[in-house]
From TrEMBL:
Residue ranges, compositional bias (Low complexity): 1-13
Gene3D superfamilies: 1.10.150.130, Intergrase catalytic core (1.10.443.10)
Alphabetical UniProt keywords: DNA recombination, DNA-binding
Pfam families referenced in this protein's UniProt entry, alphabetically: Phage_integrase
Residue intervals of the Tyr recombinase domain: 316-492
Name by which UniProt lists this protein: Site-specific integrase
GO BP annotations, alphabetical order: DNA integration; DNA recombination
């Protein structure tokens, strides 16, 4: 993509025709949506995208409220990441950890990075709960004597396996004068090694590809488990595969009929209540993704091409952050981030344009065109989309581009490291901002899609702007939006006396 590093915002005298033309350069959105006769409701030209200026599209995406988002409070001192541990100590350790020996342990960990220190704190909280359960008392009633007793340490040895837990046990043993003592049985400082699983080499290739794309650990496990579920079923239920070990199943012999039988097996499991609809839906999705990978990478025929997906209700009602809560979150970034500009842009891409975490990680300088005010999005399946830039997001990206970052991607060099950093920092900033919303980064995209749905745009437009593949997901968002709109209208009709 042609790169123009000028950062001067377009003139306010830009004509309507120029604005429309600028928007038409968004090939993915314009070419697909403009061909539809009635993608928006016909009751007004304001909803006919063929007559809609780029300004209207930008307002649909960003909205006035988002342009005013986060006027950074200059009264805050920017203390950077080093201040997070101090916040964690004052707001979590002091009020929640009363056992002095554990406080001493955490005191020695204060020099760690904020995320590491937070994990140490959570591990200590787990030990406090372990001791409370062991002694059948409240956490507030525990003392050093309780956690340094031989009986409790032996109990901890028998119930702990993770590396951090082992280190805490070693610390307790030293404090209790029991380290190396024969009084404590079966203690090994090394964490219990994971069982080695023999994996089909092509499945291994697939998981490595997903890892290179920056997929989360949960996603990797989900794909691995679901593809393995298929191979296990084939080995146990299809004669031609029964003599093969899982790691040696000949994938070229898997036909569409085998996959259809497996799909029927999953539907029966769901019907009997053994699996949820979401579980079987995701299983089919992972299998289709696996065979698409084999086709693209090795030229294998794709037996899943005509395999039907299984629809499942994926919408889970979530409370969304208010404008005030969003402002607080971005204020926290401004105060505690070592790179507030970059991190605010990263989270704005999710909130203003619906980027997924892995899509943010993949953004490079070449994806940003300041001349046309567009940004390229590398979506699932290798597809590329263009969306317009405006307001605060455009201004911040202009500043970043002027700095000419030399990293491979805008946020760093390693996709997995970028995603982990975004994910971990989100949890830290949300904690400081006093957010209690469940889940993680996807909350921002969820907020973006919900706001669009609440504006009443039709499914085709929502599909393009949100870059959805599954129409059932779109219909759920629109259904919920319509329900809330109807409910609000009915409530407003009530007269209270």
């Amino acid at each position: 993509m042609e790169q123009d590093m000028k950062t001067t915002p377009p003139s306010s005298l830009e004509t309507e025709e120029e604005t429309k033309e600028s928007f038409r350069q968004n090939a993915s959105f314009a070419e697909k949506i403009l061909q539809d006769e009635s993608i928006f409701a016909r009751h007004s030209d304001d909803y006919d995208i063929r007559k809609m200026s780029r300004g209207r599209i930008e307002n649909m995406l960003y909205g006035v409220e988002r342009q005013e988002l986060t006027p950074v409070d200059q009264s805050y001192e920017q203390i950077g990441r080093k201040g997070i541990n101090k916040w964690l100590w004052g707001n979590l350790v002091e009020p929640n950890i009363s056992i002095l020996v554990f406080k001493g342990y955490l005191q020695h960990k204060l020099k760690q990075d904020a995320w590491g220190f937070y994990q140490e704190y959570k591990t200590i909280v787990g030990f406090v709960q372990l001791a409370a359960d062991f002694y059948q008392t409240s956490a507030g009633g525990l003392t050093d004597q309780h956690v340094l007793s031989q009986d409790f340490i032996q109990h901890a040895v028998e119930t702990s396996s993770k590396s951090r837990e082992k280190k805490i046990i070693s610390f307790l043993l030293k404090r209790a004068g029991l380290y190396g003592s024969f009084q404590i049985n079966n203690f090994d400082i090394n964490p219990i090694p994971r069982k080695m699983t023999v994996v089909h080499p092509k499945v291994q290739d697939y998981i490595k590809q997903l890892e290179r794309e920056g997929k989360s650990r949960h996603t990797l496990q989900n794909h691995f488990f679901n593809v393995s579920r298929l191979l296990t079923w084939l080995s146990n239920n299809v004669q031609i595969f029964s003599n093969f070990e899982l790691q040696a199943i000949p994938l070229l012999q898997i036909k569409t009929g085998h996959l259809e039988d497996f799909r029927l097996h999953l539907k029966k499991k769901a019907h009997n209540g053994e699996y949820s609809l979401i579980t079987v839906s995701e299983c089919i999705y992972c299998i289709k993704s696996f065979f698409r990978f084999l086709n693209k990478r090795f030229g294998n025929p794709d037996p899943s091409r005509k395999l039907k997906s299984i629809s499942a209700p994926r919408y889970r009602f979530r409370m969304l952050p208010s404008q005030e809560q969003l402002n607080t979150f971005f204020d926290v970034i401004a105060r505690y981030s070592d790179d507030p500009l970059f991190e605010q842009v990263a989270f704005r891409l999710m909130l203003d344009l619906g980027f997924r975490g892995e899509e943010v990680a993949q953004v490079s300088l070449e994806d940003i065109n300041l001349n046309t005010r567009t940004i390229a999005i590398h979506s699932k399946g290798g597809e590329e989309h263009l969306l317009p830039l405006a307001g605060k997001l455009y201004e911040d990206l202009s500043v970043i581009c002027n700095k000419h970052p030399t990293t491979k991607y805008l946020m760093g060099n390693d996709l997995k490291a970028i995603q982990n950093k975004l994910r971990n920092n989100y949890h830290l900033y949300a904690l400081i901002a006093d957010w209690t919303f469940p889940g993680g980064l996807h909350l921002f995209r969820h907020t973006f899609i919900t706001r669009l749905a609440n504006k009443g745009i039709l499914p085709q437009a929502l599909k393009e702007l949100g870059r959805f593949k599954k129409i059932d997901t779109i219909s759920l968002y629109l259904h919920i939006a319509q329900y809330h709109s109807t409910l609000t209208n009915e409530v407003n009709k009530l007269h209270y006396h």
